[in-house]
Every structure is written in C-alpha cells, then in structure tokens.
Design brief:
Radius of gyration: 31 Å
Helix content: 55-70%
Oligomer: single chain
Length: 671
Amino acid sequence: MNSVDISLENRINRTFLHAYRVKRMIIRACLSTIFSIALCYVAVPLAHADAESLAKERQLYREAMENISRGRSEQAEALLPALHQYALYPYLELELIKAQISELSHGTIDVYLQQYRDTIVGQRIRIAWLYQLRRRGEWAQFVRYYRQDPPSFMRCDYLRALYKQGDTRTANAETEALWQTGRSLPDACDPALEQWLSSLSTAEYRRQHWQRAQLAIEAGQHSLAIYLLRKVPGSDAEIQLLENPALLYQRGFTMAPTDDNRRLALLSLRRLAKNKFEEANTLWHQLDRELGFTNEQNYALRDAFARQIIAGDMDYARDWINANDPAFEDPYLTEWRIRLALKDRDWEAAQRFIALLPAKLRAEPDWQYWWARAETEKQQRLTENASQILRTLATQRGYYSFMAADLLNQQYRLGERRNLDVALLDEVRQHSAVIRARELFWQGELNTARLEWNYAMRSLNTAEKIAAGQLALEWQWPHQAIVTAIRAGEWDDLELRFPMAYREQFMQTAAREEIDPKWIYAIARQESAFAEDARSPVGARGVMQIMPGTARTLARQMGRPTPSRSELLDADTNIAMGGFYLGQLLKRFSGNRILATAAYNAGPSRVERVLMRQNGNMPADIWIENLPYGETRDYIKNVLAFSVVYGEKLELSKPILANHERRISPVDEFN
C-alpha cells in the first residue's frame, strides 16, 4: 500500500472514531476492520447542532472544495474533522479521492465503494475509478468494476476493454448489438467498432453497412446513411440520391421495386415535400404505382405531406385531405377536417367530423368543447345537450374548461385540494438524501442536488413526497416543488404546482414593462417551471428560456451589456430580459396576449405570416385551434390556462380572454 493509500486509510479511521464517539459500543463492534467501520459509518446518521454550526460548516465546505480545486488537498484534509457531521462530507471525500486517484489501490477504492454503495457518491467514485483504469490500461479490472454497476455512457469503453483482455466472443456480440442503430455513435465507440468490422467477411461487412444505412434512412438521418454507404463499393447511385433527393424525379421510374429502393424513395419524398409540395405529391402517387409502397410507408408519407400542407395553410388542404383519406382512417387528418370546418364556420360539418373520431379522442375536452360550441352556433341558442357538456367541462381545470365556463357565464373552478400531512415534514426533513439535496441546492450544485432529490424520492411514499415538495417550496426551490407534486400525482395541489416563485422580480418586471403579472408568471411556468438553470436542446436558457442571440439583441435595446451564457442563467437578468421581450411583443401585436404568446414561442415573423394569409376577423378560439404549429397551439392554451391560476393567486382574476382578444384581426390591423 502506498503513502497516499495509508493517508486515506488513516483518515477513514480517525474520522469514523471521532464521528461515533457517542456510539462506543457500535464503534467497538466496528473496529475489527476498515470494511466494517465503513458500514457503521453509513448506518448511523449524524445531526446538526444548530443553525450557527450549519452556517459554519457550509463555509468550511466551500473552503475545502476550493482548496481541492486548487490542488491543496492537505489543506482540505485539515478541515475534515470540523466537517464530519456535515451532510456533504461524502462529496468532500469524493473530491479528495478524485484528486489523488492516480495513486490509489484497488483495495482502497473497494472500501470507499462499499462505504458509499447505492449512492450518488458511490456511482461517481466508480466512474472516476473506471476512467483511471482506462488511463492505466488495466482492462481486466475495468471490466470487473464496470459490470458491478455499469454506467451506460461508458459502454464503448467496456467493449474496448473486452477486446483488450481477449474476450472477443462477448465483445463481438455486444458490439454488433450496439451497431444496430440509425443514430450516430460516440467517437469512443470507434476502436470497438473497427475491431468488430475487421473480423467480418466482405459479404457480411457489406450487409451490416447496408442494414445500418437503412436504419438511418428510416430515422431520417440521411447524412449518416451517406457516410455508411460510402464504405460500401457500388453504392454510388444510392449516395447520389441521398445527397440530391431531386434526382428522384428522373431516377424514380427506373428503380427496381425492392425494399431498399422503397426506403430510399420514402426518405427522398419526405425531403422533397418540404420544398416543392405539389410536384412531390404527384411524384409520390406515380411512384406508388411503380414501386408499390407498403401501407405503413404510404401512411408515413401521407402524414409527412399532411403536415406540410397544413403548415403552409394551402387553399386546397381540404380537397387534399378528402382525396388522401376518403375513409377517415387517419385521426390526425380527421382532427384537421374539424379545424378547417371551424375556420369555415361550417358547424354541421364540424359536428359530423367529431362524430367520426375514435371514441377515446372524441371524449377529450377539446372535441367535447367544440361539439358543444358547434351545436350552440348551429342552433343559435344553448341547447340542453350542449349545456350539459359545457357544465361538465366547467367543473374541471384547464383551457377548454375555462372557455366553457365563459360560454356559461360561470366562475372558474380551479379544484384546488391539498393533501399535505404537516406531521411528515420533520420526518422527511431528516431523510439523509433530502438533507444532501438541500445542502447541494444551497451550495449552488443544482444538477447533483436534483440527483440526490430523485434518489430520495425512490424511498418515499406519496404522502412523504407531498411533504418533500412542501419543503422544496420553503427552501425557495420552486422547480423541484412542481416536479415532486407531479411525481406524487398531486394534480390539484396548486400550491406546489403553481408556486409564486421569484415574486419580487416578476412583479417589478411586470410593472416596469406594463404587462400583466399573471401572464409573465404563466409564460415562465410554461417555459421552465421556474428552473433557474434550465437549458433547452436548442440553447434557450434560464427561467424565461432566452436564446443567447435574442439576449444580445435585447441587451442592446435595453442599453445594458450583453450577458454571458452563465449570466443568462441568473434569474434577475433572465426575468428582466424575458419581461422586456414580452412587453415588446405585446406592443407589436396591439396588446393581444394570444398573438404575443404565440410569437414568444414560435417567433413574431411566423405569427405575422399566419395573419397575412387571414381573410377578415376570426374568433380567438377558432384562430388558436387552426394555428398550424402544433407545439405553439398547445403552448398558447397552457399559458392562457396558467394565467387564470396565477390570476387567482395574485387576486387579479379576470376572464381567460380580454374583450379585445376575443377576435383576431388580419395583419394589416397590427401595422
């Protein structure tokens, strides 16, 4: 055992003995081996004395972590005795282990893995050790530690280790399974893939590349398909078609009716539909006669073409849907038949199409609302049947329920109900993983805090999860309160699901930008559920999900420095910029929150394109229902519904739609 190992082993003994001084009988039972000491350490929880000692521990923890980050492990170790009762002591141990891991032995690592088994810290120790074993080239040991608790993102390193230690049979089988995907694989997989591919015969090599290229084509990953086919001699024609789908107009009629050619034609037609809809639509039906697409392929093509024709708001959309779905087989197209009938104010057709939906869809709130709405318009009065449907809807909470209540001139029913058992708060507060999550949150380590929180939720029942959500709310962790309420199925606990987060920032911003505070609250709740560190796949950041490019423009308009990407995660900065942008959009669309909300989600130019194609005024509910962007359509409905909830909380209760928002005018009226 080297000197670093001895130092760590001694520290384990010193720390454990000090921590359990009051548990002498337990210590005596544990002192026989370091291994058993570790078990005893995990088994007995440690409590904080008071708020003052907790504040001191928090500060010392930061100092210790700072020392480790600067390579001063000895100074960090000197702080350990004062931190042995602190909830984040395991994370301090973790960082010390990582700092000295190149000098540790398997035995020492095994002690720590046993000590922290089935914990986040234990997982991270194992991962750090696996990286170290990879650097050392200790492949047999890598396989041993990997298999004990395999981290999925190191699967390719595991395959490499199998090859390195000579377990070719297992490695080949697992590498082949990994290969079967239509998505790109990490670069770390290349050594294993190359070794497996080199073992294949020429025919099998070709078959495997074609098979994966087909998976890529089906997944719409044409660049990956091109990359794979470049490795297969004699694939020039297919590569050219993937690179230039317009070649299908010339080559499509000379292609043999094989499965491979049908897949290539399907991908090409999907791509052509985005740019030249009418020509591609004609080509589709011509090639169907030549190549014989399967029912599933024709269904996929119909869906792709339908989305393009609807997004384009083309005049012949109704005729196209009727021609391509004469038997009402596709519920998606039937729903659009209903929307287009509403747009035409053809109430009779709208009801007829609703009746043709599958029973499960027909029972959804949206189509229940529209059936009653069509019935009322058709009869020019509120019939008993329509009234009954609307009354049932109005007892619930949601966009269509609030719209139904307006039609009945009734108050909104929020249906709020709390099932919080306050007696459980102290019990959950003492849960070790909850304590660690709280301290990590306080230290600003939000990702790890969420991991610990999720770890705690696995052992809590529904009532305890509700109590945990309440604690998160009290700790000013609104996002976790929302997530926990949803996980507990507490849909009616509006205290947890719709917290008054960042109240000062939202109210000040709303007043400064002259926007409705319940509206900006609803936008933030929809965008991030108040996660200050939220990052979207496309790069939007923070509570209000501001794109960095948008932030640069807004900063210039606001006369302030452009925030860095990290500064954009600051709630004060993010809410101020999001509120400023909402104020701009509201002015741009003459105070109409529906249009401003749509623009916040989809961009103002896309909303204006919809308005430019509009002839005359349109009822707001019909305009929303016919918006061609499905995500934005749902976004608007959620924001309007959330606005009602926050209106009640802020004692600003008003109709879901203001009078001037109940009809949407063409774009000319906004210029």
